[in-house]
Backbone:
């Protein structure tokens, strides 16, 4: 029931990246819930992670290893268990699984980044995972991205992946990404789990910059329920297998590759919202006329997180008074309601703080019956703007989350 | 289906206060949806109001009149229409209804405070309201508090009211309050509508202080859905009919009366949560070990507003990992997860950032099956604490708010 979202039919392989999935019975048996990714020597990796103070054990390890190690050679991802709020034991278990990867691939454990997603507060089944790692290590192949997208799903209904090719002076470059996440989605650095790889060659600094810029307007601009996960991780991988020297930031080729990476991140981030738990609507919030981007984002998130707005969107009820309420509660200092205007797609509903004289209820209802639409909010106090994507709050959201563990 | 909340059987009259209700067919016909309150000469009135930038027209009028006028003589309250986001026309209509009250009671329009609650963005039906005001003015009586509590309800399932008597050096003093509100509840000054009256004599300054202190730990410490209404108003009335000089702040009598006023405010505020839209659980959040009260409140509200926490509470699922997530996302600078502990009533679940060794799932489930319980959160970084009351997020919350206008 994802909103205008189909599973990707194929994903392009990225030279220098090999993947394999395996069944580790982490939450329950019967599905491939573990993904192993091997990266060729010379690959650059950059990552951004949750700002949640209960950052999961794998997030803590990722941060430390990315600080210490230039040469990341493998990623290990599991679904079904978040390994968060698990204390020192959780850290030890995460380390043990990366040691198993290191042993299987003949690399250093410090070169392995672990990622977990699932229930918080339970310990990883290390033995079953290590056995699965051994099996996966023998089956690595370039063409397993789609299987990987499946393996990392939790309550996702659709696997999320996206590929692009872009022409550069040194030939074609590929960008492929996969992501998962449909609830506990309000990334404060990146979303639950997203992995984007390219065979372009990028320096460590350029890769970090590229990731930071792509994430700001993609994963960091979507929300399902306002809850920031303990496990948010987004990783950008550049294998450099396309050859040539590293792309210089500012150069035409860098811009072309960075633009495609940003596109892939945006498509994955939007896929997460389209598949948001119980979502029946995909809504773009466009806030303009703000004094700063931060202010515009603050208003957009106040609207996107309001349960009263979200239930009205679910009902297809053009109860725009709730939009006014949410804008007004955003805490923008000195916001003058008499300068605020609101539109639903091209229908103006609120003009400078009062109902638009020409607005008729049927017009608003017609827009809100669409599976996708834009809510435009003009604050009338500056020139900054921001876009945020979100979904509605339906019966199924409550159902899914009331029954998550049962 | 309110949680442990019955309708009050009687409410004590307050000398100096007379009330009447009438049918104005504001949203639809068939119920008494208008309340008129007359206050004796010499009454002191203090009010606190929403911080929402889309503050309703009646809130704007209340603020202006309380600034200008020492002698408030009447309150006019309507349900079914919030008169918010209605522009200049909305202000004119609110003024017109208070002029009708002034005419009917032979007082100045500036001495009338208007209050509205209901749908946002629609204009008041002034003619029908003014006719109802005329009828109500002929029927004022001291003993109509319960009828008043009924009249101001919107989606409330139970009328909310509370009375107390307290002995002072000059004899008994009465405090009676009524309130309404079950959704769009995250008061940033006071809740939807609450009116508390006493016949004690208090100076204007003492009354303001008394209100401010009572509201901080009652109406400003509850949340249903995190949405701050455009119409929040809390009014404290002291008619002085108990006689004697004004109670001096700091005196024994002042403290006794202030304590009872705070009790009435807390009982009304908790009644709002117990009757929260779709609520099946009444939950006290006790955060301790914070560096400041603001920090403790920030954590409490992060938990209280998390849809994932709220749906787990609805399910009675002791998925305490979601509590860790919400504490972690609260944005407390430098919060160390390894010092955070969490309990459910007397059951310790998280001890210094990791699962408590003795915790068993059945213990947590037993607590969460209760209609009322306390979630204790110890941050381990200071001595400040705060309490916040909230409810769960159920199927009925979505149902009520998806169908509100239909």
Residues:
């Amino acid at each position: 029931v994802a909103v205008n979202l189909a599973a990707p039919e194929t994903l392009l392989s990225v030279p220098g990246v090999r993947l394999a999935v395996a069944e580790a019975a982490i939450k329950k048996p019967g599905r491939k819930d573990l993904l192993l990714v091997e990266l060729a020597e010379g690959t650059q990796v950059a990552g951004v992670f949750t700002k949640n103070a209960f950052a999961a054990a794998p997030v803590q390890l990722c941060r430390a290893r990315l600080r210490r190690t230039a040469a990341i050679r493998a990623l290990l991802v599991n679904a079904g268990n978040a390994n968060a709020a698990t204390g020192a034991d959780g850290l030890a278990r995460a380390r043990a699984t990366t040691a198993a990867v290191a042993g299987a691939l003949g690399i250093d454990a410090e070169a392995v980044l672990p990622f977990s997603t699932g229930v918080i507060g339970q310990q990883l089944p290390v033995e079953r995972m290590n056995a699965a790692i051994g099996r996966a290590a023998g089956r690595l192949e370039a063409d397993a991205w789609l299987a990987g997208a499946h393996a990392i799903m939790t309550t996702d209904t659709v696997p999320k992946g996206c590929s692009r090719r872009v022409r550069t002076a040194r030939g074609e470059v590929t960008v492929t990404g996969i992501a998962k996440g449909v609830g506990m989605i309000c990334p404060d650095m990146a979303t639950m789990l997203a992995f984007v790889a390219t065979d372009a060659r990028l320096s460590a600094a350029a890769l970090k910059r590229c990731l930071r810029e792509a994430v700001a307007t993609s994963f960091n601009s979507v929300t399902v329920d306002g809850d920031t996960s303990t496990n948010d991780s987004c990783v950008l991988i550049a294998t450099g297998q396309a050859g040539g020297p590293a792309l210089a930031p500012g150069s035409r080729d860098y811009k072309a590759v960075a633009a495609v990476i940003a596109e892939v991140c945006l498509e994955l981030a939007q896929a997460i919202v389209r598949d948001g738990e119980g979502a029946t609507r995909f809504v773009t919030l466009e806030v303009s006329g703000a004094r700063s981007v931060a202010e515009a984002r603050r208003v957009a998130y106040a609207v996107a997180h309001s349960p009263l707005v979200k239930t009205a969107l679910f009902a297809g009820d053009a109860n725009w008074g709730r939009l006014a309420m949410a804008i007004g509660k955003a805490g923008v200092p000195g916001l003058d309601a008499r300068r605020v205007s609101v539109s639903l797609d091209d229908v103006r509903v609120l003009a400078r703080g009062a109902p638009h004289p020409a607005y008729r209820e049927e017009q608003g209802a017609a827009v809100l019956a669409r599976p996708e639409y834009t809510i435009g909010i003009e604050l009338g106090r500056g020139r900054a703007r921001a876009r945020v994507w979100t979904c509605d709050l339906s019966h199924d959201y409550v159902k899914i989350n009331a029954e998550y563990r049962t």
User: Anything to note?
Assistant: The mean pLDDT of chain A is 91. The radius of gyration of chain A is 22 Å. The CA atoms of residues 304 and 390 of chain A lie 6 Å apart.
